[in-house]
Amino acid sequence: MEAPTADELLQNKDLMKALDDAWKGSIKGTGASRLYQERGGWIYADPSNVSKLKIREAGKDRSKPVKENSSDNPAIDLENPESQPGNVAPSSYKVVANFHTHPLPGASQPPSSSDIINAYARGVPGIVKSERAIYYYGPARRENMTAASPKGYPTNLPGNPADALKGFKEWKPKAN
Ligand SMILES: [Zn+2]
What we know:
The chain is of the alpha+beta class and 176 residues long. The protein has one domain. The protein has helices spanning 6-9, 13-24, 113-122; strands at residues 27-28, 35-36, 40-46, 49-57, 66-67, 94-102, 126-130, 134-137, 168-170. A hairpin with a 6-residue loop joins strand 1 and strand 2 (35-36). The radius of gyration is 16 Å and the shape is globular. Zinc ion (ZN) binds at residues 100, 102, 111-112, 115, 128.
């Protein structure tokens, strides 16, 4: 079976809920002391039925809260999904995408160049939720869902800066 695309994954209600939960966990406090912390995780699928997903949240220690006008931009480390303790996916499942939030207010907060470069280097699509939109980027889908392919990301190439030019798409819910 082919791996799902980001657009297909975004039809899944559990993923929508995970994105909402990540969003809620990204903004803490009010006024000048409000803190913004990117939250995210990994999406796994069952190779024998890729509509069966397992969503794993990344630990809070993979990102740091920052104030809106801090010189530190918020970021999250989604490397090495298998090093995340707890709540593991069934052993046959494969990582098919990752997701994270861009919680800062204001501009549309689309995927960064690093986000896009990382997605191609890792070989799975990425999903970003910001205040205004949900975006996806990177390869259309994980190429290999067979048992012989590794746990974690299917590839871990040195990032190619030219991949940033491939850009991102804004996700639109399908009209019923
Ligand atoms: Zn990002």
